[in-house]
Amino acid sequence: MTRRISRSVRVGNPAAGGHTIGGGAPVRVQSMLSRPAHDIPANITQAKELEAAGCEIIRAAVPDMESVALIAALKAHCTVPIVADIHFDHRLALESLAAGADKIRINPGNIGARDRVKAVATACQIKGVPIRIGVNSGSIEKGILAKHGAPTPEAMVESALRHAKLLEACDFYDIILSLKSSNVERTVRAYELLAGQCDYPLHVGVTEAGTQRMGLVKSVVGIGALLLRGIGDTVRVSLTAEPVEEVRAGFDILRSVGLGRGGPNLISCPTCGRTKIDLVALATAAEERLADCRKEITVAIMGCAVNGPGEAREADIGLAGGDGCALLFAKGEILRKVPEHEALDALMSEIEKL
Fold first, then answer.
1. The whole model's pTM is what?
2. Does residue 340 belong to any structural domain of this protein?
3. Is the domain of 135 the same as that of 280?
């Protein structure tokens, strides 16, 4: 696919786990801490879980001055960039910067007068910290909402660009933009419009997507549609679930559209009346065993000879079910037959050799 090329924005120190966002850099997967902001130990534990899952950027809410301590604590215990999520009080942004935040997420329209926006922009400029402007369909200014009659994609884009101009007026351009709605179609259309009207990196996602089941469906449709259009420099899968599930889903989406970086692509058939092996259990167990694998390989778990070495001949390694047994194959060539109870161990053994 041809990706939209945006300007580059640096988040964090590259020598200490920082990343480049935009400019053709890999799409980054991020998530947000969900523990109470004042519970620093719980947030550190969760942040470490996210890091272990591969999360590349971690955002933390800073609702009050007491919560600023969380930013410093996360910086002391994590290597990935830390984003301070700020609303209403620009002083929280300034204090978070002093505490070491690598990125500030604000909505310039809700932190007050222009001098407050300028204060944040100036402090970020001095420290080399970018700002993400986050516009949601529920946060559009009343005037823009009245003009468009609803939180339309056009209204969301107008709001985002207006906020960006506030920072540009401060000679600040290390900006990342996001436009999110709980409506998938509206989200996709808004990003499409915005992508053609600026060259800032875009953070994409469907907000308030829902539970792990429905939220994942909405996110796959929305984020996937945008990535296939070349739109998106960072992603967050918003789920009413543990954040580590957001990270896993984010990488799965990237792999599904050909933008994965490390990790296997697991394919498996839906089973049918020909299947004589417990394929559901086998595929589920394989997925669990491969969770920490970083090899860029395609692994196939197929139900029978029809969907085995033939249809899955492009797989680097795979299993095709038989009657209480399985065929182990690689690139369409049968390696050997193994008993069903040994199939997964045999598969993992071959993967270790790759």
1. 0.88
2. yes
3. no
